[in-house]
Amino acid sequence: MSKEKLNESTTSTEEQTSQEENGSSNNVGRRTFLTASSLAGLGVIGSQLLGCERKGGAPAVRTIPAAAGHANKSHVPPGKHDDYYGFWSGGQSGEIRILGVPSMRELKRIPVFNADAATGWGFTDYSKRLLGGVLTGDTHHVHLSYKDGTYDGRYAYVNDKASARLARVRLDTFEVDAIVSLPNSNGTHGIFPQRHKTGYVFTNSEFRTPMPNNGTGMDKPETYGAMHTAVDGETMQVKWQVLVEGNMDLCATDYQGKYSFATCYNSEGAVTLEKMMGNERDHLYVFNIENIEKAVKAGKTITVGTSKVPVVDARGKDSAYVMRVPVPKSPHGVNIDPTGRYAMVSGKLSPTVSVVDISKLAAAFEGKIKPRDCVIAEPEVGLGPLHTCFDNRGNAYTSIFIDSVITKWSIAKAIEAYGKKDKKAATAAILEKLPVHFQVGHTNASMSETKDADGKWLIALCKFSKDRFLNVGLLHPENDQLIDISGAKMELVHDGPTYPEPHDCVVVKKDLIRPVKLDPRTGAQYTLYQQWAKEDGVDLLTANVIKRKKGLVRVYMTSKAPKFNTTHFTVKKGDTVQIIVTNQDNVEDLSHGFCMTHHDVNFLVNARATNSMTFVAKKEGVFWYYCPWFCHALHLEMRGRMLVTA
Ligand code: RUQ
Ligand code: CUA
Predict the structure, then answer these.
(1) How many CB atoms neighbour CB 362 within 10 A?
(2) What is d(CA 70, CA 217) in angstroms, rounded to the nearest whole number?
(3) High-pLDDT (> 70) share of the chain, %
(4) Cis, bond preceding 102 (omega within 30 deg of 0)
(5) Which pLDDT does position 191 carry in this prediction?
(6) Residue 168 Cβ contacting ligand 1 at under 6 Å
(7) pLDDT for res 417
(8) 595 lines ligand 2 (CB under 6 A)
């Protein structure tokens, strides 16, 4: 790297900040809210959304890597383990990804709302049942189940924004075990589990629709509503919903099980972008769970459409169920600090984060104070604040999309400065701004969403990598950056290219996760196969059996390296064939698979697991089936024949 470029890359944050403060780099003062026209002027709308250029073409962010040299910190030597599991959402890839932190090595992909050729997810009988034929998805937010304010290592939950679903992953097997469809919901975005125990998982509808959504209402958007839904995290059943008038973006819960939260960026109830940005203030919805549960119990509910789920109608104005805390402007993230005292609402179109004191909410629900009185600080953190995470030293870290920085600020100092004329106090609350590369969306820190936040690592999920990696054509990787936050100053230590597009991650101490190495032969999938075997009078564990029913041929077999116990079988053209394989290897990671050539059939069978897929035998001939997972020196010989007769 040339010296010039290096200098450019290390332009101090102070310089950048002062430029913005005196308005020399653009015409929008830092106090000013962003509007449709000012965003356009800033180069924030349309093709210049990315902050590549601001007015006049001046570069808004450096496009050169920051000074190298801290890389050793993230280095985990060969053969050594990481200290943390990272659970990443995979955005429109529909999956969850597991990374080691701090090495940022990708350890696994868990297919969830997608079809995956390697494992057969989306094609196997069980995954098809869960997915109901919907093979695209959009995962944004992965959160783990809790006990007493920290992770209990049992489950991970993730949303599907595309088709309003919630999935659960078992953290012993790292496989999906349940998917639930959310009634009367469109664009399910923020989700969050309760933190005192495995209780509810709350989900937010981002898109407002007619209620019921039954084929009318294109010209009456003012009548639309959106659902805040409570799913039981144990049974994965939808328990109740709260209907509100505004849209809901991100979701959070307190630490006591009293409240859940949702940001609303479209209190206007508009259906076009310009009008959604009309109000100077939108709000944070606060849901009072005890009061809602009482209403549900007492039957003070309605049903909407064909769903039987009880709905508390809380549209329009504050009530015992829902309160609206006014915050500027089109807020995005809501994050609770590790003490459980504060909800940080990031302004998105306001350069501020609103600090809501959760301990004041009860008084506001009782009408003793105004909802807005619960806001006890509103530090200015930069242009386009999206999400906030925390260390264990009273600091908050907010991702700033337009400025492409992480802003570190002191919660106590921000509270102290609130309402004071003294500009010095406000400046003192902002501790540091670290450039990130580029257009950071979500950010999260190690254990930040638990009472045990440890202040070690921060991840900046940057939406654009621009020229930081080799050019790979039209679609570039995103850039998940690792930042050391353990010292006085933040230090960027790693650039992590990722396939689009992670929205969020949680970073979890490794000891809290206790995966198994062999299939436990428990749970819904195994139960299903036991049921089939019972119906057919077959022992799954030794089966080498063909069962013919009307139009259906079930082929039960086992695998044990390097053999299938069924070496050949015959079916008729037009038969529907179901292949059920039970893996008899009791050896860690000794996975086999089953691929039927020319039939679009290919699936994974892990050690001790059972899996199956169904297809129609369409053409006469001999077709080899084989094991596609490298399992043995004689892996290539692990195969058999299917004869399809006329
Ligand atoms: S939300 S960063 Cu789902 Cu911000 Cu995408
Ligand atoms: Cu079994 Cu390859």
Answers:
(1) 14
(2) 56
(3) 89
(4) yes
(5) 98
(6) no
(7) 96
(8) no
